Amino acid sequence: MFDGDRLIRVMPDALANKIAAGEVVQRPASALKELVENSLDAGAERVDVLLKGAGSTLVQVVDDGVGMSRSDAAEAFRRHATSKLYTLEDLDALGTLGFRGEALASIAAVAQVELRTRRATDEAGTRVVADGGLARDAEPVGAPVGTSLAVRNLFFNVPARRAFLKTPATEYRHLLETFQALTLSHPGVSFTLRHDEDEVYRLMANPDDDDDAALARRIADLFGHDLHDALVPVAETTTYLRIRGFVGRPERHKRSRGEQFLFVNRRVVKSRPLDHAVASAFERLIPEGTHPFFALFLEMDPAHVDVNVHPSKAEVKFDDERGVYALVRAVVRKALAHADFVPELPPDPLAATFGAAPAGHTSDAFGTAAMFGPAPTPDALLPQLDASFEGRIVHLPEPDPTVLEEEMMLPLVDANANAAHDAKGVGPEAVLFQLHDTYIVTPIRSGLLVLDQRAAHERILYEKARATLESGFGLSQQLLFPHTFEPAAPDLALLKELQGDLVALGFVVEFFSGRTVVVRGVPADVRAGDERSILEDLIEQFRTLRERLRLPHRDTLARAIARRSAIRHGQRLAQPEMRLLIDQLFACEAPMAAPDGRPTLVRLSTDELAKRFA
Ligand code: ADP
Ligand code: MG
């Protein structure tokens, strides 16, 4: 396409201005993305990534691509130096991943960069060192064909930016997600990833780059064969766009969004509307607050898509956003409907989808809000409750058994109900009724008390976990058969980070070479049958919460435990269990709300009832 020794030219000003300048490198993962994209643009068949210190010490990418001439190597670090885009027209017909000629210049401005490169036709290679933006002269050096770019001590000369980096575990997770996305976009290229002393991934090239089978194999190599077996193919071609790729079966949902990949013309992109389009196709198939796996490739005329909204090129805009949204949603729905686990999906009113409020949030699946009115805030409730919950269970006026079938479901109050009982809990005679396996209803002096069993249990578990973490002495139960698993690399990093607190909670965990983790013991109070997956789920939950909340580790961990292990809605409880739940709830420091603020209970007063019957 281009020849001679000088492929790199400085962009005309008009073009440079059209492409608004901005920050390319926000974190180690952005440097990784730029470097690997350059390797892919250079036609590499093999890309090796080396990371140290979660990328803040070293991000190095070595490829076997075309390499650079000596003059190009020296030029590559200048801003707007690119071999890929010379005219404004080119911007609309972009075939390469890079085009701004900004990445190397930006990276070199904030790190210590070393470039080694050689073209197949050149005798000797070239080495260029750039330190905080000042590229020193290119010098000859022995080098294999291809390019190696090492980025050391990112932000070493911008302390504010360096301080802004998140914990190593978080930066590492971003690096991994970036790596995963890039490798998914090119299943025909082989990749390796090393972090410090660990080889994290060794991904073989899959021939037929463009083929779904190649993509599926890459997914299996990255995320395991479980996921491979749970892939649902997605394929549709319209005049505007072609969609292909996979979504995970609903049961393969996760609590974090880490495994969602979107590509437009093979470029890794982010699009909140399209994430939402996929999520809404999964509506009612997966629990609220969980996320499906997807790796979807959109192909369309580059004229319809603007990849230049953001300097890091991660965000896209379509000229017909609504159309793309509706199409993605419909196509994913169709794919799911064709898979065998969904006998029937309601028809999708396509036209009205975009802009509609994000999926109805159905915590009120049983219509209880309509029945009881909006829940009072815990604060408003507290004084009333203290007065009414002094421990006396009193008779409600006896309902006429013939009035309503509905009423018949409520057990009549035991005639001896005023016998002794715990001052704060409910007495042994209290009538407890589980409504739809979700709420516990009990009469109190001033009316009815309704507990959300899940919210209540979350509060209890949360306070218990906090206490255990503070004391550091969680009782442990030894597992008869140690549970071995191989967490995804970001989870492994997190497990190591949290090891101390996990031990405090009662986990006995050992790390083996590679990614093998062996769980030999779990906290003593883990429910039977739950021992095997608890740690895995816990870590995932922790990761999700941490992203949302930014609380101290221990608090996040306690919340994660509560969410992971609390009784679910839909779980049938025996009388003693309900009683215990209520007793423990009222023994809590803050019984009125779950750790995230959802109320644990609401009260329906007899006054209120009387009003409704007036
Ligand atoms: P862009 O990718 O937007 O062109 P970069 O700053 O990322 O800008 O790179 C500048 C130029 O350096 C590229 O256009 C390319 O010519 C050259 N280059 C960078 N990395 C490589 C590589 N791994 N192999 C070959 N050439 C490269
Ligand atoms: Mg580039």
- Main sheet summary: 9 strands, mixed
Q: Roughly how many Å apart are the termini? A: 85 Å
Strand content: 15-25%
Q: Helix coverage percent of residues?
A: 25-40%
**What's the total helix number?**
21
Mean pLDDT over the residues? 76
| DSSP, total strands | 25
Lay out the secondary structure:
Layout: E1 9-10, H1 13-18, H2 28-41, E2 46-52, E3 58-63, H3 70-75, E4 81-82, H4 88-92, H5 103-109, E5 112-118, E6 125-131, E7 134-135, E8 139-141, E9 146-152, H6 159-164, H7 168-185, E10 190-195, E11 198-203, H8 212-223, H9 225-229, E12 231-237, E13 241-248, E14 260-264, E15 267-269, H10 272-281, E16 294-300, E17 305-306, E18 317-318, H11 321-338, H12 368-372, H13 378-388, H14 405-408, E19 433-435, E20 439-444, E21 447-452, H15 453-471, E22 476-485, H16 489-497, H17 499-505, E23 508-511, E24 517-523, H18 534-549, H19 553-565, H20 575-586, E25 601-605, H21 606-613
Parallel strand pairs: 2-10, 14-16
Antiparallel strand pairs: 1-4, 2-3, 3-9, 5-6, 5-9, 6-7, 6-8, 10-11, 12-13, 13-16, 14-15, 17-18, 19-20, 20-21, 21-25, 22-24, 23-24
Helix pairs in contact: 2-7, 7-8, 7-16, 10-11, 15-19, 15-20, 18-19
Bound molecules: adenosine-5'-diphosphate and magnesium ion.
Task: Provide a compact summary of the structure.
The protein has 614 residues and is of the alpha+beta class.
